[in-house]
Amino acid sequence: MNGLPLLVAQLAKADAVLVRVHSSRGSVPREAGAWMAVFADSLLGTVGGGRLELDAIGTARNHLLQLDGVPFTQRYVLGPSLGQCCGGEMHLHYERVSAQDRDSLLQNLQPSRAPVALFGGGHVGHALVDVLGRLPFSVDWIDSRDEIFPRQVPDNVRCEHSDPVQAAVTDLAPESRVLIMSFSHAEDLEIVAACLKRQRAKGDLPYIGLIGSKTKWAAFRHRLEARGFTATELAHVTCPIGVSGIHDKRPEVIAVAVAAQLLQAQHEPTATA
Question: Which domains does the chain have, with CATH numbers?
Fold first, then answer.
């Protein structure tokens, strides 16, 4: 979950030291850009835990006592001296921040979010929104039915009513990861077809996932072939969805498996048809 709004709120009451991973080399617990805000009596975020983070907290609180302290960067080797056997190297940057830094923090700490288009407001759709709301994605949640969405959704989720539902495919953000799980197979088929047409024209949908069994996909594949889609184009669709080896059908379990697959595919290049 993005702790940035909470950081801004707490800075209205007290200053903090922002600790950011400036750079790293080798095996390390967090990537460049990860951050932790150290207040006099509380913390937000993490730069990796363990002895590294314990030392960083102490350093930050010492820096917090120095009203005129200038920002600095410190090198940490994750070896025996820190009791962490990662073996890599991290550079942590320390900087005192206050409420006056609000705009800069909102701009510089905003996490990068990959676009996801989620078609379907059923049980799995609801469970997925709960999971994706805590992950680095920007979600367009789309359904053809009225009053299907809950009143409150995570900050990174935008709800959209579209009838016909497949019409929304045209306006999806480039590089969207698409998840298709509407209330009917007929809608699912039309959404898949619209996604494949867009992929044929633009090649900018790196992942098209369809909920369902291998039997469902076999039926869909036959119908889509009749519409002129090639085997190469159809191979771009993932069905069933979710990481393999998980057989539990509860919505919340499916949601975790699907989210894990999205994370695996997040940095894969777009495959054009």
Answer: 4-108 (no CATH), 114-265 (3.40.50.720)
